Amino acid sequence: MGELTDKAKGLANEAIGNVKQAVAGKDNPGLDAEGKAQERKGEAQQLKGGVKGALGDKI
Known about the structure:
Residues 23-59 are annotated as: Disordered. The chain is mainly alpha-helical. The chain has one domain. The chain is 83% helix and 0% strand. It contains 2 helices and no strands. The protein has helices at residues 3-24, 29-55. Helix 1 (3-24) runs antiparallel to helix 2. The protein is elongated. The mean pLDDT is 91.
């Protein structure tokens, strides 16, 4: 995957994770935890895309 693909997927995962957290509130701790995990995954994907951009997609 390229830099832009990783960043786009990361943004999507972050957004979905935030929505899950908002919907879960205090009533559904499982969904809240799932949302937090997905948000972190999105952050990692964006970081990966940034590294690829800095290194020229050679990783």
